[in-house]
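Thread: "does anyone have the structure for this chain?"

Original post by V.I.:
We have the sequence but no experimental structure in hand. Need at least a predicted one for the grant figures.
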Amino acid sequence: MDAIQDENAILKEGFLVKRGHIVHNWKARWFVLLPDRLLYYRYEGGKRESCPRGKVFLADCKVTCPCLEYENRPMVIKLKTQKSTEYFLEACSREQRDTWASSITAAIHTLRPAQAPKPDPEHSPIELHNVSLSQVADSMHDVHSGIKLMNHIEQGSSFKKCFTGSALVDWLVSLNFVVTRFEAVTLSSALMDENFVKPIGIKSIEAIRSGELSDQFLDDSTALYTFTERYKRKASVKHEVSLSAVELSGRVVIQGYLLKQGHNRKSWKVRLFILRAEPGYLHYYDPSRDDHRPVGGFPLRGCLVSALEDNGVHSGVKGKLQGNLFKIITQNDIHYYIQATSKEERLEWISALKQLTC
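Reply from O.Q.:
Generated one for you, tokens below.
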């Protein structure tokens, strides 16, 4: 399970944006550096999940910094394992990139061969370079050739409009998205990891608790899955943010990964925030996108910035998220709820923001 037995053993932790192995998209993950390995987690409800999504054994690894393989992502570090598996990790700034690279390199140098843990025997990771998860999910919805939704009963409970794990594997193979069933399970795991499908029922939900991504999706005729509520067809066109050159011309005061609550779905997502002065603007970016245009932003003049108490339920904040929260109210009375990863980080951001609101 790779649970962290001693929190004092943590050398460094924080957000990095990781390129996927299966599909080469980018997702923010919470990384924890230990003396002999690097763990990464999803970050939900204001804290990291209990089980890591993956691990990298550091013995005999090589760090490349800066990594020049992605011209539009200059903050990327490449970590190559002794089995030649490559991890591409993007930091929020050059300072953070160099700090992470230095910390990982120091941990590698400290490891002696006798101390190096042996990697778990498992399948080599599959890379499905040309697979678009959105396209696969769209095809699953196709009225004529998509996967059939049926009603199932598991241990006395009825589940409507769902499909079994083996049915999805069969469908992926039959439509030539993959060649083997093992590849189909890997692709199904990616669809689940990216919230296109979700487990329902006892057996499929129990598999989630294993903590290993490769074991979480079950090629099983009794494991039940369905589409997530958040998945919508591409027919919905996203609003394009119009930006002037003036907004982005200011001096960068501070930048970093923070969590932001959405205005519509109220879900919390990791965003790269950049605070600029002269003129004072706050922009936020989706780190999974390659175009690196802000997905939102607003001028800071006249804004109200305040910290939220760490205890209690706050109106406007969805769920039970607590700790290190702060709120920005714009001149147009738009409320932004943001969470830092520590009290010190929250204080740093609030102090910097308030200086630009006058």
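V.I.: this helps a lot. Residues 121-125, 232-241 have pLDDT under 50 and may be disordered.
O.Q.: and The first strand starts at residue 12 and ends at 19.
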